[in-house]
Design brief:
The protein is α+β, with helices and mostly antiparallel strands. It is built from eight helices and ten strands. Helix 7 runs antiparallel to helix 8 (290-306). The two termini are 12 Å apart.
Length: 314
């Protein structure tokens, strides 16, 4: 059984949390020899939450994660590679944060060193204070200049849908037209008066993968609701339905998944894969659209397990 620095047993991420009195003891037991910046890999089922960003009076993914940071005494704030709206899930969200270290001179590079294996088990400790549908899959050493949002050069989303009634050729023609666009004013929520609507899509295509389709869409940055509005237009085209470019609707959030973030330097994660298995089971059990949920999780689990640079915790 894993144990904390004071030898007390650690919950391996069941989502049950610990009692308030135990939280106090756990926090006081931590020794802070220095601080360091780390990257966290996070997966979550967005159903039942009001999005990623913390909001007063609402249950959010970010609110739970910041609570876990403070409850463990590891840190205070997180910066995320992207944002997800209410109901949207993530399989590979990257967050950066400053945490305490029990290494006097911690590693501040992108490569894993021996000292990193003697570091606090950040993922396990945070999962002790998180619900079972939010899991920290692993952590990676990074330089202090790393910022999950501003260092990121590409974000990737996938939107999953059934094939019935959809013409993939028409969908990909629409996707190709959208990819060539430069101004996405009509594909955004217009929630920011000072926003600039110029964007460039690196990828926008519909993939036929067995009994299901998914939209693979990638860009350096997206506008608010941009992906779900693009999906709405592509689905309309797939059904042979016309639409007004000035009246773009918004697709349902549940089949949308934030799949990854790309950085100039590859991140090497120390991962506790047991947490991912628990998260996968929770999503398969609770998702409304079971068929899509099961498919996308099996598909993305395979991709996750094949990622280069991930190190399984000994």
């Amino acid at each position: 059984m894993e144990s904390d620095i004071d030898g007390s047993p650690l919950n391996l991420g069941s989502g049950e949390g610990v009692r308030k009195n135990d939280r106090g003891k756990h926090k006081r037991a931590l020794k802070c020899l220095s601080q360091r910046t780390v990257a966290l890999k996070i997966s979550y089922d967005g159903q039942g939450y009001s999005g990623l960003s913390p909001q007063n009076g609402k249950e959010t993914i970010g609110g739970n994660l910041e609570y876990a940071l403070k409850a463990t005494g590891l840190g205070e704030k997180l910066v995320y590679a992207g944002r997800t709206d209410a109901g949207v899930s993530a399989i590979n969200m990257i967050a950066s944060c400053v945490v305490i270290s029990r290494v006097l001179e911690p590693n501040r590079s992108y490569s894993i060193t021996e000292d990193d294996y003697r570091e606090y088990k950040y993922d396990i400790m945070l999962n002790n204070h998180l619900p079972s549908d939010i899991r920290v899959i692993g952590w990676a050493p990074v330089p202090d200049t790393f910022n999950a949002r501003f260092t990121c050069v590409q974000r990737q989303y996938r939107y999953y849908f059934h094939k019935e009634g959809l013409n993939i050729n028409e969908m990909n023609e629409a996707a190709s037209r959208i990819k060539r666009m430069e101004n996405f004013y009509y594909f955004s929520k217009h929630s920011d008066e000072n926003a600039r609507y110029e964007r460039r899509l690196d990828e926008c295509r519909v993939v036929d993968d067995g009994d299901i389709y998914y939209l693979d869409i990638r860009a350096r940055a997206f506008l608010h609701n941009m992906v779900r509005k693009i999906v709405w237009a592509i689905q309309k085209s797939g059904r042979g339905e016309a639409y007004d470019i000035q009246r773009i609707g918004t697709s349902e959030p549940h089949p949308l998944v934030f799949c990854g973030a790309v950085y100039p330097h590859e991140l090497s994660f120390i991962s506790n894969l047991r947490c991912f298995s628990e998260f996968r089971y929770k999503m398969e059990r609770d998702q409304i659209n079971y068929k899509i949920s099961r498919y996308r999780l099996e598909h993305l689990t395979d991709e996750f397990s094949k990622e280069t640079g991930s190190k399984k915790r000994q």
